[in-house]
Amino acid sequence: MTEASPLDAAAGAVRALGAPHLPDQWAAAPLTVVMPTYNEAGSLPGVAEALLALPLPGLRLLVVDDSSPDGTGALAEDLARRAEETYGHRRVDVLHRAGKDGLGRAYAAGMARAVADGAHHVLQMDADGSHPAAKVPELLGVALATGAGVVVGSRYVQGGTLSDAWGVHRRLLSRWANAYAGTVLGTRVRDITGGFNLWRADAVRAVDLTTVDSAGYSFQVETKYRALRHGFDLVEVPIHFEDRTVGESKMNLMVQLESVAVPWRLRLRHERETWVARAAGAARGHRGPLG
After folding, report:
1. Residues 6+ apart with CB under 8 A from 42
2. Residue 33 pairs with which residues in a beta bridge?
3. How far apart are CA 166 and CA 8, in angstroms?
């Protein structure tokens, strides 16, 4: 099975069924959506409402707020309280962090918390409305049907589309970033930089989030690459990626520089580990069975 195999039969069957038709047992599977926020008060309520309205009784939302100056953290607590009153049990939780420390570290903290709390699957999702909530049941269905360790909501497989609001420069930059990382790392993942990813809990544990170095958006590249290195299958499902309508992008020069450096760091580390393993194997061979 190739690393980015679509597993056509199973994944295609789930996509054909559509979101409302997941078996009850699948729909009730414990799924935690991890959603980092920093100044997302304008968009978070609508995204949270769309998620909780899905026909997925096992879905929980974990908001990871980095002490947003606009009060997103307090708003998330209010959403959690109102959701509990509506559904009769806790469906929204909030993880407050001391300050802005990078998207990757926010995801690492939230994903580790979700798995520790018993989630069978963990979904990374932006709070700005760019990721389609309506696709979540399909991602979960594909994960359960195929057994994939990671299911990527992909902009760049057949059927994936981008918002018309994206200009030519932004489209070319995104395409280049994916082609660059894929070439350096030798993967066939079409959207390795994408942030709409559903993880099996054991895949989250395997990548060892405590040792992930990437603080920014390159967290997406590093964690997918680690999952592939650990032998997990990765399936890409086409999505429409919408442009944010509220708030501001968190992309800056330092994040872009990290994204350029990380693929090479991962490749060199992999080559070094491979060399060390081969050298150790050769040394054992020279010693012979008696040592």
Report:
1. 246, 247
2. 61, 123
3. 30
Q: What number of other Cβ atoms are within 10 A of residue 196's Cβ?
A: 24
1 pLDDT band (50/70/90 cuts)?
very low
Position 215 confidence tier, pLDDT thresholds 50, 70, 90: confident
Place of tokens 């290195």: 229
**104 part of a folded domain:** yes
Average pLDDT over residues 52-79: 97
Do 138 and 182 form a contact (C-beta atoms < 8 A)? no
Check: pTM over 0.70? Answer yes or no.
yes
Start-to-end C-alpha separation, the chain:
38
32, 141, 235, 254 from 122: Cα distances, Å = 5, 13, 15, 28
Q: E strands along 82-229, which residues?
A: 92-96, 121-124, 150-154, 161-162, 197-200
Range of the domain at 13: 8-244+251-286
Are 112 and 105 spatial neighbours (Cβ–Cβ below 8 Å)? no
Whether 201 contacts 115, CB under 8 Å: yes
Q: How many CA atoms lie within 13 A of 49 on its CB side?
A: 6
What is the rounded (10 degree) CA torsion for 46, 192, 197, 95? -70
- Whether residue 163 is contained in a domain is answered as yes
In a domain, 114, yes or no: yes
Q: Count other C-beta atoms under 10 Å from residue 61's C-beta.
A: 24
Handedness of CA 258, 114, 52, 75 (dihedral sign): negative
* Joined tokens for residue 255: 């994040």
**Residues contacting 103, CB < 8 A, separation 6+:** 36, 215, 216, 217, 219, 250
